[in-house]
Amino acid sequence: MPRVVVDVMLKPEILDPQGQAILGALPRLGFDGVRAVRQGKRFELDVVDEMTEQTVRRIAETLLANPVIEEFTVHTG
Amino acid sequence: MPRVVVDVMLKPEILDPQGQAILGALPRLGFDGVRAVRQGKRFELDVVDEMTEQTVRRIAETLLANPVIEEFTVHTG
């Protein structure tokens, strides 16, 4: 059965407090060299062979992402 | 500056209630043809050129993933 992946990230202009918290914690844990962190979501969907990318995109914008503040990409796993 | 992506997913044997909730909602919203859903996290890190994959993996297992219940993959964005 095909595997489809939907990656959901906050739009670049939206503040990402989770990413900021990670960025702030890294030097305290001894990790240098990271300049920016963004946290998003990854969905792995097992779909029937007949599934179209168009339908996956409608699923993503309806249920997996908030199009007001998030953007998503669809690719095969 | 290089972009590194860390994908974090629950281990296959760990129950994923968020994925289950999405799977249950899809038919109610008129979407058929999805057989399984797993929800995970995606981290996008902008790192300095000298960053090694080994360091990124130590960051992932220390801060981004819980190795007891999650597995992660590192790749370039």
| Most extensive interface, chain pair and sizes | A-B, 34 and 34 residues
CATH fold name of chain A: Mth169, Chain: A
CATH level 4 superfamily of chain A: Phosphoribosylformylglycinamidine synthase subunit PurS
Separate helix tally of chain A:
2
Oligomer: homodimer
SS elements, strand count of chain A: 3
Instruction: Output the radius of gyration of chain A.
Output: 16 Å
Distance between the amino and carboxyl termini of chain A: 11 Å
Helix content of chain A: 25-40%
Query: What ranges of chain A have pLDDT less than 50 throughout 5 or more consecutive residues?
Result: none
Topology order of chain A in helix (H) and strand (E) letters? EHEHE
Count of all domains of chain A:
1
Q: How does the major sheet of chain A shape up?
A: 3 strands, antiparallel
CATH class of chain A, please? Alpha Beta
Task: For the structure shown, list the relevant keywords.
77 residues; alpha+beta; 2 helices; Mth169, Chain: A
Structure description:
2 copies of one chain form a homodimer. Chain A is α+β, with helices and mostly antiparallel strands. The first copy, chain A, has one domain (3-76): Mth169, Chain: A. Chain A is 31% helix and 38% strand. A 3-stranded antiparallel sheet of chain A has the order 2-1-3. The mean pLDDT of chain A is 97. The interface between A and B is medium-sized, with 34 and 34 residues. Strand 2 of chain A pairs antiparallel with strand 2 of chain B.
